[in-house]
Amino acid sequence: MDRIKEKMNALRLEADESQAKVEELQAKVKTLEQENLSKEQEIISLNHKNQLLETRVETLETENEDHKRTISGRQSDINQSESLQRKVQLLEEEAEEADKNLRETHEKLRQTDVKSGHYERKVTALEASRDQWETKYEEMAKKYTEVQEALEEFQRDIANI
What we know:
Largest sheet: none
């Protein structure tokens, strides 16, 4: 009798632990989904920044070409052209860095998606395990009730003897 109670208590503890683990994993999935959303927003922001930088680069390149055509050999015009070329180079470097950040962010997003899928599968497996334990618990509770009734009937029969 005590062994059955101990087993039932153990099953209850396992069911509680499984439920706690499910809740923990659901929280992790939610966190990963929020991180995923944040990464997507960061990608959108970096794409927009990249487009602005590319537009700026094109504008500066256009300006640079215009200045090259109008240079009449004066040193001040040459210095201005060199300055614009440096700006173009810096902006190209910034654009390359933005592209690099975009690729890294995209990779992190992909990894987050993979992790999210992994945790979703874990949650599903744990929920199935929890359901099995609940079924086993219900069966054990039913068996316990049946044994209890048989014991009471046996005690009545002995008392009648």
